[in-house]
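Submission sheet (multi-component)
Chains listed below:
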Amino acid sequence: MLRDALSKTTIYVALGIGAVLMLLPFIWMLLTSLKSGNEVMIMPPVWWPDDFKWENYKTAWEMAPFGRYLLNSLVVMVLSTLGELLTTILAAYAFSKLHFWGRDIVFALLLGTMMVPGEVLLIPNFVFLSNLGWIDRYEALIIPWTASVFAIFLLRQFFLSVPKDLGYAAKIDGCSDFRFLWTIMVPLAKPALFTIALLKAIGSWNAFLWPLIVTSSKEMRTLPVGLTSFSTEAGTIYELLMAASTMIILPMILLYFILQKYIIQGISKAGLKG
Amino acid sequence: MERTTWRASIQAYLYLLPALVIIVLFTIYPIIKSLLISFYDDYDYFNDIVYARGFASYQYLWNDPTFHKALWNTFVFVIGVVPASIALSMFIAVLLNSNIRLRSFFRTAYFIPFVTSVVAVSIVWRWIFHTEYGLFNYVLGLFGADPVAWLTDPKWAMPSLIILSIWKGLGYNIIIFLAGLQNINEQYNLAARMDGAGKAKRFFHITLPLLSPTTFFVSIVSIIGSFKVFDEIYALFGGQPGPASSALTVVYYIFEKFYSEWEFGIASAAAYCLFIIIFILTLIQLYIGKRKVTY
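Outcome: structure written.
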């Protein structure tokens, strides 16, 4: 009994130390973001600011067009997620419930593209989009991301688990494929769709390389791109940099707290099926 | 059984149309086009006119010490991140999987870095790694160590990047390991316990072998992900690939050739080299994943 209690304590201590190390950067970010300049550049460091300088957030917000960056990030996140959901629902339904020529070949071809690293696509996509005149516009930030083979694969797996009889029954009652999909399959697939949307939204919010390449004006930057340019401008004013970072990090942490069940489930499932 | 007919096929392709249009235009066509561009020796991208074709880009990469350095750095990065990250995350997952309280709190703490913006957390780490006022050097100082110029000394740039990346990716691996652990039937453990096997013995002879498919999956995903590291570098070193290119990786090299030097042919050729490396790793995954995972 004593041995058990001891080993339990060891586990708690080990996990506790690890958790503190994992969270410390965020705590340090928050504390720094509320300090005055004098409390930041000092050794040994001051842990708790004398009084909370909330105005750091206001200063950072006004030093760069963060409002605009936020708007861009939100527009890109919402529209690319909605677009992906739509294309995914339609394609996953075809691959799981419809019989057509070339189905297996097309599906295998799509799965094959998952092996290709996105970096290979950068240059041709850039050339293509600049020929279309879409560079530095929402189209370039959104449209290439409105379909995902991975999402199609996930939803197809879910649709396959729905018994065939359900479809037959609906057909006998005179329900068209299209209506069957939207009134029966989609509501059934809510948890899977929710997971797909969440993973997409997080990915879109945090995306960096693509928005960096296809935006050239300040007005079109998303938050991460805006933050890196702010970090060159604000240079060493770390309290402002930390305030700006907090503004980008906090929404995702909140989203995670509210929806962690779906995120964890999605990642465990997607991961294991790989 | 339903029969495949023309009518049904046309209908099905209408369902596929939106997804296929996007995927063909922005994934399949670029895969082919990128290969072609890598053989363009003289290319006017704006008008999409090719003046000369050949192997010049690949020759250039073969002889370019900067590219070799990028490959080497990427390799060092992968070796630095993947084994440590897997060992740590497996250890934490096993602890989390034991019957403890506060489990979801711990899981959250380890997972949060994964959902946050790479760019933003890299900037936070830039502050933590600050030579004079950084938290890291302060803590090291408590143990009597001299301050280290983490981000400005070429010797320490790569270790800083590795520390940041392990921290960032740990949570994802833990979640996958936890899922893998939960698939292991408790009965094996109970049986071994009855036979008098201790904790360590049970871990090495039951958990580890039964977990090997998961371990294998996590290692391949981590290796592929680490080969593609970019955002962290850009944000950590403020738009530079580290002091004296000490953190220049393959993707950063591609980015520089493409975005700063407009050398589309060379950048595409480098991207294809990355593709081949990742392709081989994926084949290994498929091959070993099918037969060699032990138990």
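Remark: The CA atoms of residues 136 and 217 of chain A lie 7 Å apart.
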